[in-house]
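Let us practice reading a record.
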Amino acid sequence: MADEKNESSGFKVVDRRAFTVEGSPREESPAEAKKADPPPRIESAPLPEATEPPEEDPLGEPTGFETLVSYLSTTTMFQLGLIPGPGGERIPPDMPNAQRSIDLLQVLQEKTGGNLTAKESRLLEDVLYELRMTFVELQKRQARKGR
């Protein structure tokens, strides 16, 4: 079986190490030196000037930012008990985690200030407003039930 492996596989192995096994510098033959092409030079293109990002994705798809805001707002609504569980059962509100999620959206708003499109900024502002108002309303309801 070992003799059957003598067939050419089409691969050629070339030792390109700079040193021999003994540690001395390897001398290249003139043919090998000619074959070694220098790597292609990559010239950097000038950086584009900072411009306002496009208002929306050209295909009308939600941007990554819009998806992130949607994910965080849906999570918050679930924590507020506004969205049913996987089996359709009612989930009780988790007010501390809902507050953390709203705070996270506020941090996102603060950290991205000035870097969002008008549409993205408005989306985040509207989502935060609605979630805050819902949170306050649920707190009032829980306070009334606690009396």
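A brief commentary: Residues 65 and 84 are 25 Å apart (CA to CA).
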